[in-house]
Amino acid sequence: MLSILRRKATAGGSDAVLLRERLRKSCAPATTRLQGYATAAKEMMVRDALNTALDEEMSADPRVFLMGEEVGEYQGAYKVSKGLLQKFGPERVVDTPISEAGFTGIGVGAAYYGLRPVVEFMTFNFAMQAIDQIINSAAKTNYMSAGNISVPIVFRGPNGAAAGVGAQHSQCYAAWYGSCPGLKVLAPYSSEDARGLLKAAIRDPDPVVFLENELMYGERFPVSAEALDSSFCLPIGKAKIEREGKDVTITAFSRMVGLSLEAAEILAKEGISAEVVNLLSIRPLDRPTINASVRKTNRLVTVEEGFPQNGVGAEIGMSIIEDSFGYLDAPIERITGADVPMPYAANLERMALPQTEDIVRAAKRVCYRSLPMTATA
Amino acid sequence: MSAAFSSVRAIRRPGSFAGEKHSPPVASSKFASDFLGCAGRLPFGALSVSIRPRSARRRGLSSVVAVSDVVKEKKLKRSSSSSDLLITKEEGLELYEDMVLGRTFEDMCAQMYYRGKMFGFVHLYNGQEAVSTGFIKLLKQEDCVVSTYRDHVHALSKGVPARAVMSELFGKTTGCCRGQGGSMHMFSKEHNLLGGFAFIGEGIPIATGAAFTSKYRREVLKESDCDHVTVAFFGDGTCNNGQFYECLNMAALWKLPIVFVVENNLWAIGMSHLRATSDPQIWKKGPAFGMPGVHVDGMDVLKVREVAKEAIGRARRGEGPTLVECETYRFRGHSLADPDELRDPAEKARYAARDPIVALKKYILENNLASEAELKAIEKKIDEIMEDSVDFADASPLPPRSQLLENVFADPKGFGIGPDGRYRCEDPKFTEGTAHV
C-alpha cells in the first residue's frame, strides 16, 4: 500500500504527498473530501474494514487493547475481531465474563490510568447494563477533574435493528448518547467510513461511542488506496455528502444512508434531485455542512432508525430552524422508526422501521409532489 | 427443615481445578471439563469430607451439599421393589412425555428455522430437558417461572400449548404473545410464565420480585393461602453478572419464596465457564449469602426432581430461597447461528451418552413402571401434537397492520393528545393502523 502512494507521489507531484502529510498529522478536515482517489477497484466488507483498523491501531500503539465478550477465542461475536487473539495474545484481546457494568468500568479505569482500551459490547442494548460507567465515569470525568484525568476509550458494537431479533435487541442508541456532553458519537456507513472513523476514535483522547450496525457488517464497498494506508483516518465532526443534489436534502446515518441513496435514485427518475448527507458524526453534529446543504436545496428530510421523540432528526430540525429558517421552502420532515418497541413478527418489523418508500414519499411531500395530508407510516 | 440436606455427605473440593491432579484419578488435561461430571460418579468413600461451616450451623442452615449422592445412597440401600422407587408410573409417564415434548419441539424448531419459517435468534434446549421437567412439573399453575432466551421448553413444561409457542416463533398473531415477542420473549399470564428475557441476569430480579409479591400478598394483603413459589432459570454465564448477586442477597435477607436454578451447561456462547469464573462451583455462592447451595446432576431428571422437591418445599414453607446448580449440557450450539467450533467433540459425546430422555426410559423399563409400547404411544402422541402445532402456525395469519400500535401501553392514552384535541388512541385511523406514527 505504501509503495502505491510513493509511486503516486513521484508521478502525481506534490498534491498526494501534501494530502498524506495533512492526514497523518492531525486528521485535520480537508475542505473537500476528494472522492477521485477511489480509482482502485478493491472492495472490502465493513467487518474487514473494522478488523484491519483495530489490527493496525493495536500494532501501532501497545497501550491499545480490546476487551469484550467473545472477542478472543470465538473470533468476535460478529467476527469483527477475527485473528486478533492469534496475533496479539490474550493480554491484549481480553475475553470477559458476562459482566458489562464490571468490565466497562475496568476499561474506564484503565483509561484513567494510562491505557487506551477498546470496549466491545455484543450489542449496544447490552451497554445499558454499563451505561452508568459510560456516562458518569467516562463522559463526565475530564470535566469533573478539570483536565486532570482524560479518558481515551472507545466503546464500540452493533447498534440498531437486525433481522427479527425482538424488542430487547433492536434499539438505536444514537439519540441517547448524542445528548451527553463529554462523549463523541460516531456512526459509520461504508467500509472507508468504518476504517477511518475507528482509527480516529482510537487515537482520540476522549471517550468515543462507536455505533456500528449488524446488517452492515457483511456489506462490501469499494475502498480507495488511500483508505488502505495505515495512517488513514477521518476527521471527527465532519459529515460527508454522499450524493450531490439540488432539490431536497436527506440526512441519514449508518444503514439508513443506504436506503437514502436508493431513495435518491428513485427520486432522480421522477425528476427530483436529492442530496444525501451521511452524518458520520452524531456528536459533534456537523451543523455547518447540513445547514449549507439546506440553504442550497431549501428542503429537508431527516432519516433515522431510532424512536421519533427526542431523536437525531429532532435535533437536526431544530438546528436548521435556528440557523437557516429563512431558507426553508417547506416544513421539515423526519422519518424515524415507529414509536413502539420492536415487534418480532416479520411484517410488523418491516412496518416499524423506515423503508425506502417512506423516504421517497417524504421527499415528495416536502417537494409538494403529493397530496399534503398525513400519509401512512 | 434442613434435615434432608444435612443427612447428605458433603464433598469438599480443592481450591483450583484446572489441571490439578487429585484423586479420584482423572487425567489432569481432562479434569477441567470432567470435574463437574465427577460429582455423580465418585466412588463412595473417596474424598468425602463432611463440612458444616460454623456460621451455617449457628443459623441452623445446611450449606455445602452434593445431593446426587443422596439419591444414589437411597437407591443402593433399598431393594428395588416398586414401592421404594422414586416415582410412580403416572409420574414417570408424565416426566417422559414432558421431556419428549421438549426435545421434539426443539428439533422441529431447527427444521423450521432452516426452512425459513422462523428467523432471528433461536436458542435450543436439547439436552437440558431434565432440569425444566424436574422442576416445573412440581409446580402449581399459580407458581411463577422466569427464564432467559432459552425458554421454549420452560414455556411448554409450564403448560403453554405447543401451538401457541410455535405460532409465536413463526411470528403469527395466534402466538402466545401475538407475534410481538418472539423466541426470546415468551410470556403467559395464565400459566404465570413471566418471560423470556434476552439479557441474561435480567430475569433474576424479575423472579425475585414475583417472590416478593407472593410474600407481600401473604403478609400485607393477608391472603393466608398464598404460598406461591417462583423458580428462576438461568445459566452459568449469568452467575458472573452483578444482578445475580444482588438478588441472592435480597432473597436471603427477606426470606423470599424463590428457587434459583443454575443450568450450568459449561458454556456461554463460546466462553467456557472455567475461563470466565474465578470459582467455578456456583453452588458455593449460596451459603455465602446465607442460603443452601446444592449441586445436582442435571442430566438425570429423577435426581433433579428430588432436589426440586426439597427446594420448592422450603420456599413454600416460608424458609427462604435455595440456590440449585444443575450440571447439564446443551447438545446443540448456543443458537442456530452458532458454528459451535470451540467445544471438544469428546465432551459432547460424553454428555450425549448421558441423554436424560434415554436415562429415564431405561429407568422406567428396568423398574417395570411401563412397557415399551406405552412409551412409544407417548412418542407418537407428541409427534401428532408437533405436526398439529406446525400446521396451526402455518395456517395462522400474520399480524394485521393495526396491531403495530397495540399493547404499547395498558392504557393507550400514553400516545398523547392529537391535533384535534382528543386522545390519539381514539382516532379510528390509529386503530386501523393508518395514522401517522
TrEMBL record, chain A:
Ranges for domain Transketolase-like pyrimidine-binding: 44-219
Keyword Mitochondrion carried by entry: yes
GO BP, sorted A to Z: pyruvate decarboxylation to acetyl-CoA
GO cellular component: mitochondrial matrix
Obligatory cofactor(s): thiamine diphosphate
UniProt-listed InterPro entries: PDHB_mito-type, THDP-binding, Transketo_C/PFOR_II, Transketolase-like_Pyr-bd, Transketolase_C
GO molecular function (one): metal ion binding
E.C. no: 1.2.4.1
Reaction(s) this enzyme catalyzes, per UniProt: N(6)-[(R)-lipoyl]-L-lysyl-[protein] + pyruvate + H(+) = N(6)-[(R)-S(8)-acetyldihydrolipoyl]-L-lysyl-[protein] + CO2
Compartments where found: Mitochondrion matrix
Keyword Protein transport applies: no
Key words of the record: Metal-binding, Mitochondrion, Oxidoreductase, Potassium, Pyruvate, Thiamine pyrophosphate, Transit peptide
Cross-referenced SUPFAM superfamilies: Thiamin diphosphate-binding fold (THDP-binding) (SSF52518), TK C-terminal domain-like (SSF52922)
NCBIfam families reported for this sequence: PRK09212.1, PRK11892.1
Subunit and partners: Tetramer of 2 alpha and 2 beta subunits.
Function according to Swiss-Prot or TrEMBL: The pyruvate dehydrogenase complex catalyzes the overall conversion of pyruvate to acetyl-CoA and CO2.
PANTHER family: DEHYDROGENASE RELATED (PTHR11624), PYRUVATE DEHYDROGENASE E1 COMPONENT SUBUNIT BETA, MITOCHONDRIAL (PTHR11624:SF96)
Name recorded for this polypeptide: Pyruvate dehydrogenase E1 component subunit beta
Record organism: Rhodamnia argentea
Name of encoding gene: LOC115738948
From TrEMBL, chain B:
EC number(s) from the headed UniProt entry: 1.2.4.1
Molecular function GO labels: pyruvate dehydrogenase (acetyl-transferring) activity
Matches recorded under CDD domains: TPP_E1_PDC_ADC_BCADC
Function description: The pyruvate dehydrogenase complex catalyzes the overall conversion of pyruvate to acetyl-CoA and CO(2). It contains multiple copies of three enzymatic components: pyruvate dehydrogenase (E1), dihydrolipoamide acetyltransferase (E2) and lipoamide dehydrogenase (E3).
Keywords associated with the record: Oxidoreductase, Pyruvate, Thiamine pyrophosphate
UniProt keyword annotation of Secreted present: no
Pfam family, one: E1_dh
Ranges where the Dehydrogenase E1 component domain occurs: 98-399
Required cofactor names: thiamine diphosphate
GO biological process: pyruvate decarboxylation to acetyl-CoA
Name of the protein in its database record: Pyruvate dehydrogenase E1 component subunit alpha
Originating species: Rhodamnia argentea
Catalysis: reaction(s): N(6)-[(R)-lipoyl]-L-lysyl-[protein] + pyruvate + H(+) = N(6)-[(R)-S(8)-acetyldihydrolipoyl]-L-lysyl-[protein] + CO2
Uppermost EC category: oxidoreductase
Keyword Oxidoreductase found: yes
Subunit note: Tetramer of 2 alpha and 2 beta subunits.
